[in-house]
């Protein structure tokens, strides 16, 4: 089997991954300090000189957030967070400042920065974080920035206004609020848009958003400016992250089908989609990909029994780990 180089690197570090309650951690390297009620986001801390420390949010980007989330076994990042959104790491030093990643790095430690312990004017009020996933919303994909015509809207439903109390340092929060409002609206929304920094628009079914004119530079930090829509599409499933399984104990899910022979190593999303279709046809509530191409299913949340894991890759699980999803439609 011709396994990609990046995957061989992942297999080499599997034995060094350590999950624990409230923390997703790769031992002596990187960890995410997560609230107990939010297992998909948290404050980023890195290990250096025998101690854990935080990262200053100076130039902290979604590219950097993506590197962190993928390194910790998530399929990717939703948004970066700034200004100690997940609390201040006051018991630790600030290890890294002005971190700059292009998104291709395998670890946040490969990204450029000002030097270990060089903090400048940063304080723990500037601690950086990430949102890797949100269990309350379906998996989301950014579909671009588009010019709206208020007199002839493509997305006609102005279903929520989130402009009051905008967190301007963390506009990803506004996007997630629009997403949650779309999910709880009771409407058949498969995509939504954020306009004018906090106005939420959509239309039931599968609206032809591409009839709008593209404006790739008119959306900032994930939201649209005046008369511009930052559009997001919903997947037919929720992203629940990477969870440990134990072969010599009771398995947390049931094997539905082995689809390893059909793996496209350059597009693991095809494997996730195939497993979703199998789970949906079988009437199952949850599905997971383990060992890169085994489709496992369940109707309960027993998959959480052994805690979170970090040895997942591009939305699928590796050895004895399940990357879990919940069927939406």
Can you give a write-up of this model?
- With 329 residues, the chain is of the alpha+beta class.
- The chain is built from four helices and 23 strands.
- The chain has helices spanning 5-13, 62-71, 172-183, 269-281; strands at residues 17-20, 23-26, 30-33, 41-48, 51-55, 79-81, 93-96, 129-131, 140-147, 157-161, 191-195, 199-202, 213-214, 219-220, 223-224, 228-234, 237-244, 254-258, 286-290, 294-298, 312-313, 316-317, 321-327.
- Strands 1, 2, 3, 4, 5, 6, 7 and 8 form an eight-stranded mixed β-sheet that branches. Strands 10-12-11-16-9-13 form a six-stranded antiparallel β-sheet, covered by helices on one side.
- A hairpin with a 3-residue loop joins strand 11 (191-195) and strand 12.
- The chain is globular and about 60 Å long.
- The two termini are 35 Å apart.
């Amino acid at each position: 089997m011709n396994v990609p180089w990046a995957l061989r690197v992942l297999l080499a570090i599997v034995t060094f991954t350590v999950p624990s309650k409230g923390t997703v951690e790769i031992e002596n390297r990187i960890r995410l300090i997560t609230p107990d009620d939010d297992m998909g986001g948290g404050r980023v801390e890195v290990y250096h000189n025998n101690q854990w420390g935080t990262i200053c949010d100076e130039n902290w980007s979604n590219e950097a957030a993506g590197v962190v989330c993928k390194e910790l076994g998530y399929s990717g990042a939703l948004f970066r967070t700034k200004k100690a959104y997940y609390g201040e790491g006051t018991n630790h030093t600030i290890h890294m400042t002005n971190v700059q990643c292009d998104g291709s790095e395998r670890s946040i430690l490969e990204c450029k920065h000002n030097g270990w312990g060089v903090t400048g004017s940063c304080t723990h009020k500037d601690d950086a974080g990430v949102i890797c996933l949100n269990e309350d919303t379906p998996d989301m994909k950014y579909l671009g920035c588009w010019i709206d015509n208020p007199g002839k809207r493509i997305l006609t439903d102005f279903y929520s206004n989130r402009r009051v109390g905008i967190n301007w340092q963390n506009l990803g929060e506004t996007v997630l609020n629009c997403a949650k409002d779309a999910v709880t609206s009771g409407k058949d929304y498969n995509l939504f848009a954020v306009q004018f920094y906090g106005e939420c628009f959509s239309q039931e079914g599968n609206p032809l958003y591409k009839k709008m004119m593209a404006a790739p530079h008119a959306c900032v930090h994930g939201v649209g400016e005046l008369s511009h829509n930052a559009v997001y599409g919903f997947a037919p499933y929720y992203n629940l992250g990477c969870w440990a399984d134990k072969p010599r104990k009771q398995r947390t899910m049931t094997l539905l089908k082995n689809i390893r022979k059909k793996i496209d190593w350059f597009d693991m999303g095809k494997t996730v989609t195939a497993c979703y279709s199998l789970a949906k046809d079988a009437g199952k509530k949850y599905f997971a990909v383990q060992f890169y191409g085994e489709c496992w299913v369940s109707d309960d949340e027993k998959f959480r029994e052994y805690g979170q894991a970090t040895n997942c890759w591009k939305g699928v699980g590796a050895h004895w780990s399940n990357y879990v999803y919940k069927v939406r439609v």
